[in-house]
Amino acid sequence: MQAKLHRWAAADRGRRFDDLFNFVCDPATLIVAFTRVAGNLGARTPGVDGLTVADIEEQVGVPGFLDDLRAAVKDGSFRPLPVRERKIPKPGGSGKVRKLGIPTVADRVVQAALKLVLEPIFEADFLPVSYGFRPKRRAQDAVAEIHHFGTRGYRWVLDADIEACFDSISHPALMDRVRARVGDKRVLALVKAFLKAGVLTELGDRQDTHTGTPQGGILSPLLANIALSVLDEHVMAPWRPGGRMSTSGKRNYRRSRGESTWRIIRYADDFVVLVNGTREHTEALREDIAHTLAPLGLRLSPAKTRVVHMSEGFEFLGFRIRWKRKRGSTKWYVYTFIAPRAVRAVKTKIRAITGRTSQGHLAYVLTRLGMLMRGWANYFKHAVAKWTFSKLDAFTWWRLIRMVKARHRWSWRQLRRHLITPDGKWRIAAGGIEYFRLNSVTVTRYTYRGNKIPNPWPTRTTA
Fold it and tell me: What residue ranges carry the coiled-coil annotation (predicted)?
């Protein structure tokens, strides 16, 4: 079903789909939607009704729950409940918080069903410069594209930040974008109902939502991408076939006349614009982008949006990207490092796990550390990270050593007797779980995939 929807959408860019509601209510769609909701870590977090996925499986049963939900959606009696607000600290130790909106399990299932149907349609329209919350795409692809164009003369950077993007998107502007592809009024009514569902704050107050799409919902990233695709289309319009930057020859001709060329790389609401030109060209783009975002109800943050040269460096998606001279030579390259804020954030998590007064079993502590450090290393292992991995490994090792020493009240002699193996090597292990050495992770260069990123729904049929 998804492959056909994507193929039809790609074949006719102006097509509006008028009969999608039956796909959303299809029992097979709801089963897949529930499976995805149940497989997510958020399945253990309840919404305003207090029910988790486990509660539904034990108290109601999945078949009965899905039958009742399908009947409510089909007869029009389904109404999304307000999302439960939860504030979590932003990474990096800034002291700021991010607001999440946690829907009920029933709402999550319907949102997942809507996403299954709508995503292949809108993926046909999304440009390749967008990477966030899209199938087969990842943050490393966005960073690799910056590296690719940075080495080819795009050295001025508009490092942009949209102020409270998920909370400020205009509902009428977003729904206009959805209506351009979806003509089914029942599906449009469901999407609008989720936008207007409201928020139950941590203090128990009910707030209406006149703008924005709450972070935490399954449908929210797709809706944000639909809205922000306006920005992609506007900035990349000259790159389209026949445009004034559509070929390398045209781009070279523009630069020979003192004009600029540019490229946007966007990951959800985080984006940068790389410019092959001057600071003045980049400042002009900043004003142009601000005007493009205004009809969406969005604005660039004056404090966080800046124009920088790549030799100064900038942070993007946890990485610090900088054009600098290679040590011991006169050649300059674009390097990708781990941003200090990302290191501070992971150290804070490590401290929380390895506190000296921690009462958790050592095997549990080692398991949590392994999960944290493996995930962190897999994300950053394509950067210039070997030195950072070694320093962080030493930091974690000593945290564990001090925790074990304090827990058992051992002297250093006792500690060595327990943790040094007969071959003279240190080893921290418990319950068959051994300490994961971060400095053992192999650092490799990420391969730039460009336009070779696979499509989950190929548009060509095979015989």
Answer: none
